[in-house]
Design goal:
The structure is a single chain. This protein is an alpha/beta fold and 326 residues long. The chain contains ten helices and ten strands. Strands 7-6-5-8-9-10 form a six-stranded parallel sheet, sandwiched between helices. A four-stranded parallel sheet has the order 2-1-4-3. Strand 5, helix 6 and strand 6 form a beta-alpha-beta unit. The radius of gyration is 29 Å and the shape is globular. The protein starts with a helix and ends with a strand. Keywords: Glycoprotein, Glycosyltransferase, Golgi apparatus, Membrane, Signal-anchor, Transferase, Transmembrane, Transmembrane helix.
Length: 326
């Protein structure tokens, strides 16, 4: 009799649990659409914590204070390419030193996220090659260090990089104005082809052993460009850091040495040309890349046993479609 009483009590208890649980279950299922995970944690997730607990993508930034305009463009483009390849959110802090890329281009990933200097740092081993150290980043928010100067870092997102490096109207309109003025000197400008030429000579920020492209390189490159576009009105627009040298060495009728101007204006003119001749340096490299046309480069750079040659890999720095000349 005692056994039956106990069983009856157990059944009654279970029934009571079901009755009281159903309303609670119905309440939570009816209100689940309004339920939210807690807000994502702010950037700065510590390494070793695994996947970010807030459910957001991990952040990736870069120290963008290395060098001048061309170097900063490599830093920005490579950052985006590395981030896209690993599903991270890329951004750069506001430009406070040197050229402000955001004032030149319509950049969409300039943000401030506090003190990123405390984030985990990953540094390249050499500047002009595809460094494997960036292929498997730690599972935390990371700040990259280096020049990251290889087209291979962002070859997966070339269309996005071209959109990011869309010139602001004050520079693009200036470039259009200069080219229009030059084109009006031709009786038939329908077949006009503009070839940008960047002449980089050693300056106060160059190493004493930095190799300069000689006049013979430009003469050779002019001839090749004319041959590639035979029958067209090929016109060379020359810009560089030594206008006097350019005037003394280029006297062909189809060569125009541009007036001195801001580097950003010269860049806008060169990058808007149809094709490009590159001597040395990242400024001319990027102008050539953005033209999307034939690009000729000085193949003797960098000279052996110079600091630029350390770790330099030609096939990582120069795209395979570009034409090497000396």
């Amino acid at each position: 009799m005692a056994v039956l009483t106990s069983r009856r009590a157990l059944v009654l208890a279970m029934a009571w649990m079901v009755v009281t649980s159903v309303p609670s279950f119905l309440y939570w299922t009816s209100n689940c659409a309004a339920w939210r995970w807690p807000a994502s944690e702010p950037p700065g997730t510590a390494c070793g914590s695994g996947a970010d607990p807030g459910g957001r993508a991990l952040y990736l930034t870069i120290d963008h204070e290395y060098g001048r305009m061309g170097n900063k463009m490599f830093e920005y483009a490579s950052l985006l390419g590395i981030a896209r390849g690993q599903g991270r959110h890329p951004f750069v802090g506001r430009y406070r030193n040197g050229v402000d890329l955001a004032a030149v281009f319509h950049l969409t990933h300039v943000e401030d996220h506090g003190n990123v200097d405390k984030w985990s740092k990953v540094t390249e081993k050499n500047y002009a090659h595809l460094d494997q150290v960036f292929q498997n980043l730690p599972r935390c928010d990371v700040k990259l260090h280096g020049y990251v100067q290889s087209w291979k870092y962002f070859d997966n997102i070339t269309d996005e990089i071209r959109r990011e490096f869309t010139l602001r109207s004050n520079f693009s309109s200036r470039a259009d104005s200069v080219k229009k003025e030059i084109s009006q000197t031709f009786s038939n400008n329908s077949d006009l082809v503009f070839v940008g030429v960047h002449v980089r000579t050693r300056d106060g920020k160059s190493h004493s052993k930095t190799l300069e492209a000689p006049k013979s390189f430009y003469t050779h490159a002019f001839g090749v460009m004319r041959a590639l576009h035979v029958g067209r009105n090929v016109t060379f627009l020359v810009a560089g850091n030594n206008r006097t040298w350019c005037q003394e060495n280029f006297d062909e009728p189809d060569v125009v040495v541009l007036d001195d101007d801001k580097p950003e204006v010269h860049f806008a003119i060169l990058a808007s040309c149809d094709h490009m001749i590159v001597s040395i340096g990242t400024f001319g490299w990027w102008a050539g890349w953005l033209t999307g046309g034939n690009v000729i480069f000085y193949k003797r750079f960098p000279a052996p046993e110079t600091y630029e040659a350390k770790g330099f890999v030609y096939q990582d720095y120069y795209p395979p479609s570009w034409i090497p000349l000396d």
